[in-house]
Specification:
10% helix; TIM Barrel; 502 residues
Length: 502
């Protein structure tokens, strides 16, 4: 990267570091009779370059479509060293301000080319007029090899009359459902609008096949799926519009946003921007849920803390050791809530994070008790912890606690009893293998464990002085080679029942 080519190198307040390159100038105005205009830019990015590299493109009037393609080299690197990986996206003439109006699309590393016009756009990108002004191709050098990263970006402008942008068809906020009851959903799903391989139609069909009642659109760093989801919803399937916000310090789900709401991702934990975007999500009717907090891929571990979230995704896809770590972290947070005694705690949820075959939509799924099959009712249930997690729709579970004077509480609720009052906890499970293990966990840890009985029901006695809360787990047998004391994969996990008066 030659110094003469760099206009600005800065760590923008509230945003990750950026570099802005010299602009690509399409000097001659494009007219209806002109042919395509193409410019190609090459350059080199060193190791340690900023998170985002902006390539300004001066777009003249009279352009119908902008198309971009790019390549970069992938030199061999020593063992244990990260090689080159570079994402791409674009902002329009409204600029690149963090959280501003300029966003027009992002495909990460899933695509090498895209096009935008008023009538249409490549999945991941937003259809709309190609207006005159400075647009910005965004390169995201995710990792850079010791040799640096050589890139080539080609921009093609097609002149012509602007077409008409289709009116967005967002899904309804409420569908028929079954009234007050338990609803099953998967809120972490990917399609061709980011790095998934399934179409939106594929996703809706798989959700119905999995017997889900609701799903959330959560493609990485884009809202491009939102305008196309309306026709796929129905009285049997509520579709929420959301986003997986994929930062360099962890990923989080924005679940149930107003259709078309974009949430920026260009910041790290040290930039102190997260809280502002969490507030934006709630203003747009959504909830904030850290995804796979101990994810094993680069930059997927959660670094923003848990002070400003609505739930935690403790189970992501098929059960692995990082889910076990997420579960333990969440349980520690419950213990902290018990110590504070203010009644404020963070519920757990589970989602599939399905991208492509053979990923299973609904493995796992969150089962939410809601007043209706609606965005608001489901979010209220998730925030309140009136939910549990199942590996599939066959798993059925009930967890209750009762006191000596007829008091009764279910998942996410509080049983208001005295410290020494006898409490009976009852767990009923079906739809799991016969060799499953039933566990009850309190702030002390595992306090009860038994094989699944023929009746499917186990009970346990305690007091509020011994257990601030109780939650349930259903586990498969531990595979051979599992360290002693570590349980097998989960089949179901509940949020807690709290014991004792506030």
């Amino acid at each position: 990267m030659d110094r003469r080519d760099v206009l600005k190198l800065s760590a923008v307040a509230g945003a990750a570091g950026v570099i802005t390159l010299a602009p690509v100038d399409f000097a001659a105005a494009a007219g209806p009779g002109d042919g395509e205009l193409t410019r190609t830019v090459t350059g080199h990015l060193p190791t340690g370059v900023a998170d985002f590299v902006y390539l300004p493109v001066e777009v003249p009037r009279g352009v119908r479509q902008i198309a971009v393609s790019y390549t970069y080299d992938r030199p061999a690197v020593p063992a244990g060293t990260l090689g080159n990986a570079c994402d791409i996206g674009i902002f329009d003439q409204h600029g690149t301000a963090l959280g501003g109006r300029g966003f027009r699309g992002w495909s990460g590393g899933a695509r090498t080319e895209f096009a935008i016009s008023a009538e249409d756009a490549t999945p991941g990108y937003l259809a709309g007029p190609v207006e005159a002004g400075t647009w910005y191709v965004v390169l995201g050098p995710y990792t850079v090899a010791p040799q640096g990263l050589n890139y080539e970006v080609t921009v093609t402008l097609t002149p012509g009359e602007q077409g008409r942008t289709p009116k967005p068809d967002y899904p309804p906020e409420q569908v028929g459902g079954r009234g007050r009851g338990w609803y099953r959903g998967d809120c972490h799903l990917h399609t061709v609008h980011s790095d998934g391989k399934r179409t939106l139609e594929d996703l809706a069909a798989l959700a119905r096949a999995a017997k889900l009642d609701f799903i959330n659109s959560s493609d990485h760093n884009t809202t491009s799926a939102h305008p196309h989801l309306g026709p796929l919803a129905g009285d049997d399937l509520l579709i929420l519009t959301g986003e997986e916000v994929t930062t360099r310090n962890g990923h989080y789900l924005a679940i149930g946003l107003d259709g078309g709401t974009f949430v920026d991702w260009r910041y790290r934990a040290r930039d102190e921007a997260f809280d502002g975007f969490a507030r934006q999500i709630r203003r747009a009717g959504g909830i904030v849920v850290p995804a796979h907090p101990y994810g094993t891929s680069l930059a997927s571990q959660w670094k923003f803390g848990y002070d400003n979230v609505d739930a935690i995704e403790v189970w992501n896809g098929p059960w692995t050791t990082d889910d076990e770590a997420s579960l333990l972290t969440w349980d520690n947070l419950l213990t902290g809530a018990a110590r504070r005694g203010d009644g404020q705690w963070i519920p757990a949820m589970g989602n599939s994070d399905a991208h492509r075959d053979p990923d299973v939509v609904g493995l796992p799924q969150t089962v939410v008790h809601a007043e209706s099959l609606s965005r608001k009712a489901l979010q209220d249930g998730i925030r309140a912890g009136r939910s549990w997690i199942a590996e599939n729709a066959e798993v059925q579970l009930g967890l209750t606690a009762s006191g000596p004077r007829g008091q009764h509480a279910g998942i996410g609720e509080r049983l208001a009893v005295g410290p020494q009052d006898a409490v009976t906890v009852s767990l009923t499970v079906s739809g799991v293998p016969a060799d499953a293990l039933l566990r009850l966990v309190s702030d002390e840890g595992q306090v009860f464990a038994a094989p699944l009985p023929a009746s499917g029901t186990v009970t346990w006695q305690t007091t509020a002085s011994l257990a601030a809360y109780v939650r349930a787990e259903v586990r498969h047998p531990a595979p051979a080679g599992t360290p002693v004391g570590l349980p097998g994969p989960a089949a179901a996990i509940t949020n807690p029942i709290w014991l004792g008066k506030k």
